[in-house]
Amino acid sequence: MRAWTFGRTSEAAGLRTKQAFGTAFRLGLHAASLAPLALLLYDDWAGRLSFNPIEDATRRTGQTALALLILALAVTPLVLVSGRRSLMTVARPLGLYAMLYASIHLFIFAVLDYGVRLDLLREAVLEKPYALMGLAAFVLLLATAATSLRGWPPWLGRRWWRWSQRAVLAAAPLVLLHSLWAVKVITSTHVAYTALVAFLLVFRVPSLRRRLERRLSEPLPREGAE
Ligand code: HEM
Where are the domains of the chain? Predict the structure, then answer.
C-alpha cells in the first residue's frame, strides 16, 4: 500500500474524531444549558422549592439567564486571547439560552406572579426601578436574539443589524443593576459578576480588540457582540 493511502486514512480518521468531538461538545452544551430548567421543574414537582416557590423560580431563572449571558459575552475575549476561532460557534446558542431563561423569568413574573393583570404590571414596572431596568435589558436581549436567528431578513438593513447585535453589551450591566436592586443585598456573587462583566467589556474597546485581532488568521465579524 502506498504511503499516501496511509496519509489519507489517518487524515480521515482525524477528521472523524474531530467531528465526533464537535458533536459531543454541542450535545454537552445543550444538556448543560437545559439542566437548570430540568432541575427547577423537578424541584417543583418534588415539592423541593421554598415556601415561596414563585420567588424561588424567579430567582433561579434570573440567575441562570445572567450566568449564560456572561458566558456568551466571554466567547469573543476567549477567541481573541486563545486564537481559537472555532469557539465562536458557542456564542449563539449561549446567547439564545440566556434569552430563553430571561423569557421564562419574565413569564413567571408576569403570568404566575401577577396573573397578567396589566394594571398591576404597569404599576410594578413604573414604580419599581429594578423592574424597569429588567424590562430594558429584556428588550435589548430580544433585539440581539431576533437578529441572531437564521431567518432574519437581510432587507432590514446592516445598521439595524449591527446595533441589535451590540445591544447585548448594554444589556449585561443593566441586568447586573436590575438583580442588585431586586434582591437588595450585595453578595460575593454580585461583586464577582460585576468585575467579570467589566473585564469582558474591556475587550470590546476598539484599540485593544484590533491589536488582539491581528493575531488571528482572519478578523472576527464586525457586527460582533458575539
Ligand atoms: C421585565 C423584565 C424583568 C422583570 C419584571 C424581572 C423581575 C425580577 C424580580 C421580581 C426579581 C426578584 C426576585 C425576588 O427576589 O423575589 C428579579 C431578580 C433577578 N432578575 Fe429579573 N426581571 C426582568 C428581567 C430580567 C432579565 C432580562 C434578566 C437576565 C437576563 C434578569 C435577571 C435577574 C437576576 C439575576 C435576578 C436576581 C436573582 C438573585 O440573585 O436572587 N431579570 N427579577
Answer: 1-48, 51-213
